Amino acid sequence: MSNTKPDQTQKADQFRALHHSDKLLLLPNVWDHVSTKLITKLNFPAIGTASIATAISNGYPDGEHIPFPRLLEVVRNITAAADYLPVTVDIERGFSGSINKLEENIAALIETGIVGINIEDSNVNHHDLLHIKKQCEKIATIRKVADDLGVRLFINARTDVYFNPDIKNPVEEVLIRAEAYADAGADCIYPILVKTYEEVEEIAEKSPLPINVLLIEPIRDLQRLQAAGVARVSLGPLLFSLALTKIRDSAAALKQHKTEDLFDGELLSYASLHDLL
């Protein structure tokens, strides 16, 4: 029996459809209430989280060091602030050492109102890939839990193939994993850190799943990514890094008594700041 809210089901269907559209899905990644409210005012169709941003903004290093109950609290705040927007969450490796714990965690995450997750297929240092069979078991578990709860959770299967320099043909390995993950119930393949348009195009052409890429400098041309067949572009921690860089640089300028740049551009007004509540 489903215990999900009707609007969660609708958001899940909406989010899934965004990956099968002629329009490239641009997914900004947020980390708290305020960043979420800012994005909702810019009319993006959906939002996601980045694990490093949610962890560091709460005082923890990346790599599942943030306690899972704290992560749930952060996600609840984000889904509440997102209002009408679908939210997908980076859950790293699932915060679990067993299938039973993974089941519990996925159920708890769905209860927060999310409609999508990223699940990665490597160990904590991202170098050693999990055996395909083991990762497929995790994906199938996530799919079953979501189906039992009555929500079509969008499973974005992140593969860390490009972290491993020992893999001689990364495109081939990505495609092997995409095929297996699709059979297990995944909805999208995410070869994070793929760096060339040619590789992106080959994966998009041959993968049974839509492809998600991380926006990094070598493949930053959105028109080329769309032409290559990409369905979704994630920003990862980019907005978080940009925000902190701006704070650092502004404070450093102030320390040198340089204030002219502090008032460049249109600052958020007092009223606009309160609109973020």
Detail the topology: elements first, then pairings.
Elements: H1 6-18, E1 25-27, E2 29-30, H2 33-40, E3 47-49, H3 51-56, H4 68-82, E4 87-90, H5 99-111, E5 116-120, H6 132-149, E6 154-159, H7 170-184, E7 188-191, H8 197-206, E8 212-214, H9 222-227, E9 232-234, H10 238-255, H11 270-274
Parallel strand pairs: 1-9, 2-3, 3-4, 4-5, 5-6, 6-7, 8-9
Helix pairs in contact: 2-4, 5-6, 6-7
Please describe what this structure looks like.
The chain has a single domain (6-241), classed as Alpha-Beta Barrel (TIM Barrel), CATH 3.20.20. It is built from 11 helices and 9 strands. It has helices at 6-18, 33-40, 51-56, 68-82, 99-111, 132-149, 170-184, 197-206, 222-227, 238-255, 270-274; strands at residues 25-27, 29-30, 47-49, 87-90, 116-120, 154-159, 188-191, 212-214, 232-234. The strands form 2 sheets. The protein has a 6-stranded parallel sheet with strand order 2-3-4-5-6-7. Strands 1-9-8 form a 3-stranded parallel sheet, with no helix packed on it. Helix 5 links the parallel strand 4 (87-90) and strand 5. Helix 6 (132-149) packs parallel to helix 7. The chain is globular. InterPro entries: ICL/PEPM, Pyrv/PenolPyrv_kinase-like_dom, Pyrv_kinase-like_dom_sf.
